[in-house]
Design brief:
Elements lengths: L15 H15 L7 E2 L1 H8 L3 H14 L2 E3 L5 E3 L4 H24 L3 H20 L2 H18 L3 H8 L2 H12 L2 H19 L3 H24 L5
Antiparallel strand pairs: 1-3, 2-3
Helix pairs in contact: 1-3, 1-8, 2-3, 4-6, 4-7, 4-10, 5-6, 5-9, 9-10
Length: 227
Amino acid sequence: MGALKRIRPVGKPRAVGERAYASLKEAIVKGDLSPGQRLVEMHLSTQMRTSRIPVREALKKLEKDGLVEKLAGGGFVVKSFSRAEVEETFGIRALLESYAAYLATEHMTEATLNRLEGSIEAYKVALDEGDTQRLMQLNTQFHETIYKAAGSQKLYDLINNFRDVIARYRKGLLTCIDYARISLEDHEKLIDAMREQDKEEVERLVKRHVLRGKDIVLKDMEAGKVF
């Protein structure tokens, strides 16, 4: 039960099932619960200080999200991803996010550029300090700013469908200092292209950025790292 200690109690307020779901989802996305780890209702309900019913509801919802899978003999396990799933997920993400960046460039304002640059400056500080958690937050903030600047709710919703799956990889990517520095360089080049209103270059840079991440994840999988 060691890894379960990081899951916060959900308390007794309304919508306990939703709170249990949010707590488990956060633990999976952040990597506190590892791929392949079995999730036992009794242990989870004890850790969360709630009954097994909301835990069961949360696990079923996480199964629909593709974050856990049901075992043949009963119970659930944190889902591991195959090479094909990684390639598909990153491929779709590259298309969606590059298009969002293209649209964002069309609607770019000085205020948005300033927010992006502010994220980069804070990212540099976190990188120097080796603060992985902060790097993840700032990376998410940077991309979130671009998604919203695109001005398309449908596109934003589509990207969000992949957010939790992608977040599981992001921690592994940003703990690799070399990749974290390359990511910073990519973001700086992206802002330069946005200032120049070069939509095609922006689209190309984002695709390259996402697919580079895919290649690193696949190499890690070949080396035996589990996602």
